[in-house]
Amino acid sequence: MSTLKITPLVGLEIHVQLATRSKLFCNCTVEFGAKPNSRVCPVCLGMPGVLPVINKRALDLSIAVGLALNCRITRHSKWDRKSYYYPDLPKNYQISQYDLPLAHDGYFEIPSNGSMRRIRIRRAHIEEDAGKNIHDTPGCTLVDLNRAGTPLLEIVTEPDISSANEAHTFCTELQRLVTYLGVSEGSMQKGHMRFEPNINVIVEHSGVEYRTPIVEVKNLNSFRAVRSAIDYEISRQVAGWEADNDYVLGNRPNENRGWNDTRQVTEFQRPKEAAHDYRYFPDPDLVPVEIDDHWLQRIRSEVTEFPLARRGRFVAQYGLTDADADTIVSDRATADLFEAVLDTGAPVSIVSKQFVNIWLKIANARHTTMAQLGVDARRMGELASLVQVGTVSPTAANQIAERMPDTADTPEALANSMGLVQVQDIKAMEKWLDEVFAANERTVQDALTKPKKASGSIGFLRGQVMRVSGGKADPGLAGELIEERLKKMSE
Q1: 106 shares a domain with 195
Q2: 3-state secondary structure 125-194
């Protein structure tokens, strides 16, 4: 029996909630967690006789994403009604875009297996969100329409993604992009991004290719769920073909399925709709969108360097590791702050270590970002420079940094007031060495008699000197004096 060759085909539909203050066609506030049905008006409730008005900010943000995804921007676009009936859709239709999406024919490059992989973008169009069905009350379903009319950008890829891991990477990189551009908060917990992978597989057997029916997994709200659902669905479809070779595209219907996170399986919901099922037609209440050169150029001038490109530049220009560059660039304001600190003349090697090992730790403890700590670039640069010239030790810099968000004092002033200025006094250093050598005789003997342990033992002793000195000792001088003392003892 010949071995099966399996080739997954995965495309993604991703809904991105745009970071506007008001809804797409009315003045209602977009607010997560508000009292149910408190952010609604006759327009988003679909009352007879009301007229929608386009939110221009939503168009600006969507054009920015289209440019970032290397798409062609449609100069003449329009709005269409997508008809379907759900309890959370008060008009019984959704205002969307059908044949003239705002952006189309682009691509997004992602890292995959040590190289960059290009995923084609079929289209990106604007549409309004539906409300939310709430199933918490036994025997009935409640509907909260606060979300109805919220502006969404739906991004649709070609089926170029070849694995669950690639899909996971695409989604995480896209989240970084939209948050970096400021077009969305990108919060999974608040439903700002929702993912719907379309999955089927090519099964090659005895030189013949078979394609399984396409399954769309609806409304995934986490990166982990995207990966798990695709992995499961690939396995399920292959098993389905092996059990019945007639399980192929065209012979069996395409499906919409949901993801059961508890059972880690997809579950059948309904046959997958086609475009004609929605009875699209142009919305008669909205004028077309005409994007001229001036509008497009204004948005293009506001689009900044993208995260992947900036990470690569940080590695090449500043010598950062991939991991450190990834950490710093993950937040645009933090990356801007990092470069502003370097502009003060502070040493990049120390600044990068402090960003990853000190400022990130402080920011996480305060549930914020490094850029929002309230410590400006000048003071961050001064702290790094104090370490460079030996005024304070790296350990002392950590203690000083802990205080900096809560005061306007300079790092040097804090070092003096906290007694953390490094001591260069040889007599004081010798006293600390006496104490450390007396308290760690076994480590001293290891350094003297066991060459393989010598380096580690000296490092340990230096750390103990820093401890007993309260971080005041110059670690470089301490290391030199430790080695000199050990040399004399060995002689």
Answers
A1: yes
A2: EEEECCCEEECCCCCCCEEECCCCCCEEEEEEECCCECCHHHHHHHHHHHHHHHHHHCCCCCCCCCCCEE
